[in-house]
Amino acid sequence: MIEGRRRFRGFILEVDDEAVTIRLPDAPAGADPNHRLPLAMLADAKLVMSDTLMDMARKAQEENNPLDDDDIETETDEMPDDFDDEDQPGTDDDDKSSKEIH
């Protein structure tokens, strides 16, 4: 029990190694709506993915796309123009399972 409560419903504001800070929308008038909850005291949590969180994640990914990292080297192999995969072992048209990825 934290501050006389067993359940908290709110918006995550900050997370660190020791605690999570949430804003409670149902906080009484005049009371601080932000509560820091020690992770060691949490037994269960249900997180809801909202449109706002999805937009934030999308924006963060666009701004910090790991594929745009100059330290990452990408190699591509091009198949010769005369390459015919039917000539390759395991690509018999009767054996469709060899072409499927599961």
UniProtKB/TrEMBL annotation:
Residue span of region Disordered: 56-102
Matches recorded under InterPro entries: RimP_C_sf
Bias (Acidic residues): 65-95
Protein name stated in the entry: DUF2171 domain-containing protein
Source organism of this protein record: Devosia algicola
